[in-house]
Amino acid sequence: MAELNKFISTNRIIKIDKLFDSSLGCWLFCIEYIASAGGSSSGAFKRKEKIDYKSILSQEEYGRFIRWKTVRDVVAARINLKCYEVFYNEEIAELSKKSTVSIEDLKGLRTFDDAKITKMGEVLIDLFNKGTPQQS
To answer: What pTM value is reported for the model?
Structure first.
């Protein structure tokens, strides 16, 4: 078991399937993973450091950042998506630097393709311009 725990802590795990084999009397594991850098088992998989947007954005920009996060959560809930499938925080921070946002600004974001613009572009901008929306 210690070997399995070490493997899991040193690689990025995508999916684990387990099955109890009664003929062998043991658990079988199928693990999908991304190997750690260099295949090293010396440390855990490194995640990106969390960014404190409040400390890097101006007070006005941070206010817009919070408003965009609320809009993102409302839209995600309405169309049954995870919030990060609408915007990443780094994209919200980029939008927050502008006092007004257009469809062209959304097109400039890394994850916004034409399909995403068509599906939610106008709704995002309308909700943001109306003020802080309420989740339903």
So the answer is: 0.60
At 56, list the tokens: 């890097």
CA dihedral of residues 49, 50, 54, 60 (deg, nearest 10) = 100
pLDDT in tens, 9-64: 888 888 888 888 899 888 888 888 887 665 444 445 556 678 899 999 999 999 99
Burial group, residue 74, by CB count within 10 angstroms (0-12, 13-18, 19+): buried
Q: Report helix, strand or coil for 102.
A: coil
Tokens 């925080």 correspond to 89
Decide: 37 and 44 in contact? Cβ < 8 Å: no
Which one-letter amino acid corresponds to residue 111? T
